[in-house]
Every structure is written in structure tokens, then in C-alpha cells.
Specification:
α2 packs parallel to α8 and α3 crosses α4. Strands 1-4 form a two-stranded antiparallel ribbon. It is mainly α. The model has no long low-confidence stretch (mean pLDDT about 85). β2 and β3 form a beta hairpin.
Length: about 190
């Protein structure tokens, strides 16, 4: 199936992809992690938001579906629902100033209404086994290993975002996976000199 974006979609996708790639380059740079907590958090939350909006482009449903069938277990769930969960927590609870302080609980998540996106994610994935990944950074000749931890329980206890996904290595892994997913819809990518 070949789907081409209409004029409005093309405009949005061009702006969103450019923003994503700019943030990606900044965050993946080792110097980025020397910035203060608030600056890092604002940039990271911004890239998760941009990615979540890009995923609303219909062809990504098929990409995530294909990941479920052809990639290692949980890759589709990580690249779709987990990253959207992180974006939603950051967006719907803009009360935190750094990654390591972000937390939710069943009571907080459902302060307005039960059964919304964050609540559904936590109900579905709480108690799930950890998922281990590794990623290679050719320019650094470095392999990094991470573990994505799902909450043991979804109850009145605080669930810290940092316990699910670490700030530095977890975010860098997330960005690499996001880029792989969104690049499936790009005909060519020009690297900056």
C-alpha cells in the first residue's frame, strides 16, 4: 500500500520531522547532558511530544503493526504505547521540573476520570517483565545496555518515570528507536555536514 501525504499533512510532517531531527541532534550530543535539569527536561519532553504527534499520521499504525509481527517482542509496544505514555505523563502533569522527579499514581492519574490513556497503559503493562535492549553508537564505538522496567503494581504508590526509563541512556535509546520508526516514512534523509 502506498500512501502519500496530502498538502496539509506534508506541511505538518515537514515541520515536525525537522523539529524532531534538530532536537535529536542536540539531545544525542554528549554536551547536552551537562545542561541543567530543567533545560534537559524541557527539550526531552518536547521531542516526546513531537514524536507523539508524528505518530498520529495514519501510516504509522501500519509501521507499529509490522513491528509487532516482524521484530523482537515488545518493540511495537515500546515504540508506540510506552513512548506515548511518557509524553502523556509529561504533558498532562506539567508540574515537574526534571525527569527524575516525574511520578504518577493511580489516584493522580485518575483525578479527572478513570480509563483514559495513562490509566489504560498502566493497567495493561503493570507487572510486565522488564525488557532489555542495547544500542550501538558507531560514532562513539560504544554499546549501551538498558532495561525498561514496568511498575510492579498500579496502585496508590508513586510510579517514577526514572524507574521505568533512565534519563540519559533511556532517553537516548528512545530517540534512536523513534528515529528508526519515523524514518520508515522518509524517502531520504540528508545528513548535516
Amino acid at each position: 500500500m502506498e500512501v502519500r501525504p496530502n498538502k496539509s499533512e506534508e506541511l505538518f510532517l515537514t515541520l515536525a520531522y525537522n523539529r524532531f531531527y534538530d532536537l535529536f541532534d542536540e539531545i544525542m550530543n554528549d554536551d547536552f547532558w551537562e545542561n541543567d535539569d530543567w533545560y534537559r527536561f524541557s527539550r526531552v519532553s518536547n521531542i516526546f511530544s513531537v514524536y507523539a504527534e508524528i505518530l498520529s499520521y495514519e501510516p504509522f499504525k501500519y509501521v507499529l503493526d509490522a513491528l509487532k509481527r516482524h521484530r523482537p517482542p515488545m518493540e511495537s509496544e515500546i515504540g508506540g504505547p510506552l513512548f506515548k505514555f511518557i509524553r502523556n505523563v509529561i504533558a498532562h502533569f506539567p508540574i515537574f521540573e526534571k525527569w527524575n522527579d516525574v511520578w504518577v499514581s493511580k489516584e493522580l492519574v485518575n483525578w479527572q476520570k478513570e480509563g483514559l490513556t495513562i490509566d489504560r497503559f498502566l493497567k495493561k503493562f503493570s507487572g510486565h517483565e522488564p525488557v532489555k535492549y542495547r544500542f550501538w553508537e558507531a560514532d562513539k564505538k560504544q554499546m549501551t545496555y538498558i532495561t525498561i522496567m514496568f511498575p510492579h503494581q498500579y496502585d496508590a504508590n508513586k510510579i517514577f518515570l526514572n524507574d521505568i526509563l533512565s534519563e540519559k541512556d533511556g532517553v537516548r535509546f528512545s530517540l534512536i528507536m523513534m528515529r528508526q520508526i519515523i524514518n520508515t516514512q522518509v524517502e531520504s534523509v540528508e545528513e548535516k555536514a
